[in-house]
Amino acid sequence: MSFASLSNKLMGKYNRSKVNTIAIAVHIVSWIAQFVGHGKYEGRKPALLDNLVQALFLAPLFVWYEVLFKLGLYKGLQREVEVGIEEQVAKMNAKGKGKE
User: Fold this and answer.
1) Are the C-beta atoms of residues 49 and 43 closer than 8 Å to each other?
2) Residues 71-85 pLDDT 10s
3) According to the model, what pLDDT value does residue 23 have?
4) pLDDT of residue 74
5) DSSP letter assigned to residue 1
6) Cα distance between residue 82 and residue 65, in whole Å
7) Alpha-carbon torsion 84, 87, 88, 89, what sign?
8) For every residue of 16-70, which 3-state class applies, written as one string?
9) What is the pTM for the complete model shown?
10) Quick check: 11 and 3 in contact, CB under 8 A?
C-alpha cells in the first residue's frame, strides 16, 4: 500500500507523462538487469523464457514474500520455502552430475 500511496503522490505532484516515462525506464532497466544477472551469475535463462504467466503473476508474488521475509514476518513459511529450495537445488545438482 505504501507504493500505491507513493504513486498517487508522484502523479499529483508531477506531470503524468513524465512519471510514466520514468516508470517505463525503470521497468526496462529492471528487465535488462534480470537478464544480465541470470546470465552472468546464475548461468541459466530466466523463467520468463519458459513460462510467461509465471513471470508476470508469480514473480511479483515472490518479490512480495521476499520483502515480508526481510521484515521478519512469516518465519515459519520462510523456513518451509528455504527447505523446499534446498531440496530442489539438490535435485538439480544431482541431475547435472548425472549428465557428465
Assistant:
1) no
2) 999 999 999 999 999
3) 83
4) 93
5) -
6) 12
7) positive
8) HHHHHHHHHHHHHHHHHHHHHHHHHHHCCCCHHHCCHHHHHHHHHHHHHHHHHHH
9) 0.49
10) no
- Which H/E stretch holds residue 12? helix 2-13
**Positive or negative torsion for Cα 63, 65, 68, 72:** negative
pLDDT score at 18 = 84
Residue type, 20: N
Q: What does the pLDDT read at residue 1?
A: 64
Low-confidence ranges of the chain (pLDDT < 50): none
Tell me the backbone φ, ψ of residue 72, rounded to 5 degrees.
Answer: 85, 15
Residue recorded with cell 520483502: 67
Angle, helices 2-13 vs 16-37, to 10°: value is: 130
C-alpha cell, 32: 535488462
74, 65 Cβ separation under 8 angstroms: yes
**Cell output for 65:** 514474500
